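Deliverable D4.2, example record:
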Amino acid sequence: MPGITERLLYRVAKRWIAGYNLEDAILDAQHTNEKKMAAIVNRLGEHTPDRKLIEEYVEEYLKLMDSMHEANVIGAISVKPSQLGLTAEKSLFSENLDRILDKAKETKRSVWVDMENSPYTENTIQVYREHFNSYQDLGLCLQANLRRTRSDLENLLGIGSMIRLVKGAYPESADVAFKKKTEVDQNYLGLLRILFENGSRFVVGTHDDKLIAQAKVLNKERSVDFEFEFLKGIRDDLKDKLVDEGYKVGEYIPYGPEWYNYSKRRLRERKRNILLLMRSMTG
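Output generated by the structure prediction step:
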């Protein structure tokens, strides 16, 4: 049985996660579709060298895509490289991504590859490039806090890649990443300009009002096929507003037994989330 702290946190965590299992994820994805947003579903879990667990993650994604297809869910799945074998062996990640893409082709489903902390960046991009040629609905997340991202973005746009741009949430050293918020924001804006100038399909993944406003301005200058994307449970008012304004909006929906560590990260990120936890303890 989970402890009292975990049970209380789960009541708050339901803001950010669909639940424990695949069925919870499908229900949440359908609800997101009802609000005229696409659902980007992620099975939580990362950084495992355990080949048995890696295989379970792969099988779960294959089942997830079948379930999304059967339920007519509009949206994609998003996978983490270290969840699919990159922690164990680069070739294992590549083989498992191949299996997932075969199912994606069968169910006509887009797949996003999340970007993790910097030790994984180079191998993630290499494997992505190897598979993009065979499946054009394969997207890659890039992080504005990394110093290398401008070069990576320019190279990836050169082959027509589908990109999701985020700020980046992993702790990194100053030699590989910008440390000040102002520097990260400035770099994000520069990368955003590159996307609007040279990109054809991309996602603006930020909750930052100023950067969202800049994306709107850039879209007036060059109208392109892009989407705003938000985490489940964050900026719900803004999601509705953007939908009403006619923008494409996606909601990133995580689920799975690993919700506890994910939720602790959400609490660290926002003081308001701690207040929600306190209310649940007295409510």
